[in-house]
Amino acid sequence: MVVTGDIELNNSVGKVTLKNSTGDALLRMNEVIDDMNIETSTGDVNVIIKEEPANLEVDLSASTGDMTTNLELSYDRKSEHEIEGSKGSGGPEVYVHSSTGDISVVLD
What we know:
The protein has 108 residues and is mostly beta strands. It has one domain. Helix content is 0%, strand content 62%. The protein has no helices and 12 strands. The protein has strands at residues 2-3, 7-10, 16-22, 25-29, 36-42, 45-49, 56-64, 67-69, 74-79, 82-87, 93-100, 103-107. A 7-stranded mixed beta sheet has the order 1-3-5-11-7-10-9, with no helix packed on it. A 5-stranded parallel beta sheet has the order 2-4-6-12-8, with no helix packed on it. A hairpin with a 2-residue loop joins strand 9 (74-79) and strand 10 (82-87).
């Protein structure tokens, strides 16, 4: 399901799949234990995590927008519009894409 408007999820647990046409997305999570797939056409995406995962795969990209993360990752790619990297071995994948918007995945 694709929605329009701002979305806020607090203390989400498990797999997250979010598709938003227009609007910002804010996700606050205690920990990442399963895959996250977040896509938006126009809007910023902010993911705030309380506990840093031991294992994680990260794929963030935006056609127009800046990427921000403070996670300790081994980077495969890192540029103004794309961050791809990992921590540990395997683990959940955090995939976030926005056509137009900033993306932030940070520890609180």
